[in-house]
Amino acid sequence: MTDLTKVWETYERGKGIFRLAPVFVPRRFAQAGKRLRLHPDDYYAYGAARGSIKERWFSSVIPAMNGPLAKPDEGMSYVAVNDDASDKFLFRDAVEALGPVLIGETLHAKYGTWPMYSKFFDYETPLFHHLHLDEASAQLVGRMGKPEAYYFPPQLNNHPGVFPATYFGYDPDTTIEQVRERLLQFESGDNRITELSRAYRIELGTGWYTPPGVVHAPGSYLTYEPQWNSDVNSVHENVVWGEVYPYEFLTENCPEPKKRDIDYILGLMDWEKNVDPHYKKNYFRPPIVCAHSDERHTEKWITYGNEYFGAKELTVQPGQTVVVKDSAAYGTILIQGHGTFGVHDAEAAVMLRFGQMSGDEFFVGEAAAQAGVTIVNRSKWEPMVFLKHFGPNHPQMP
Question: What is the CATH number of the domain that holds 363?
Answer without folding.
Answer: 2.60.120.10
